[in-house]
Amino acid sequence: MKAPHWILLALSSLVPPWLATLRVLRVGRKRVEALRQSGSPILYAVWHRDCVLLLRGHQHDQVTVLVSQSEDGALLSSLLRRYQYEVVRGSSSRGGISGWLGLRRALKRGRIPTFAVDGPRGPAESVAPGVVALARTTGAMIVPIAASSWRARRLGTWDRTRIPWPGSRAVIVYGRPVSVQSTADLQVEAGRLAKRLSGVTRIAERLSG
Known about the structure:
Radius of gyration: 16 Å
Number of domains: 1
Distance between the termini: 28 Å
Order of helices and strands: HEHEHEHEHEHEEEEH
Structural class: alpha/beta
Strand order of the largest sheet: 1-9-6-2-5-3-4
Number of strands: 9
Low-confidence stretches: none
Helix content: 40-55%
Strand content: 15-25%
Number of helices: 7
């Protein structure tokens, strides 16, 4: 189910001061730092439901995010830019090729393209092949990331987006990077990444209680 427009409009105004109250614990962050120091190109892979929780904590990572070309995507783009994220518009249903090429260009500029791998319409916790295809053609490493919080509200959207309560503690977990060979099968690798992301999610949820 698509998120009601009024929810996204409210979030675009309320999220910044709301997230400022969170206390964030990062687990496995050194994996990202080691890859960047080695000069390896990186892609971030996340579940769509974790996007709000992940807004705070990556403002200085030179992240580029693929956002749909819908009206709701325009609101999300505005919110992302407030957090210093670069935005590329496109999705699997509209502007897919141009969006994918935009992320490829961002990667060449040294940025970190970030995929909500089950978005924009689901099904939840499935991996669309776009992130795997980009890794296969560029040699970039995929870093699976999951987030959870001690207290959160789940929205009635298709992905069950989680909004943390003000002042709560949040945890962000960075999983072991995934490499994709140039001859790899996209569907097989997408399934492998889904399992890795699910594992990272279980760790985040266990750490958050």
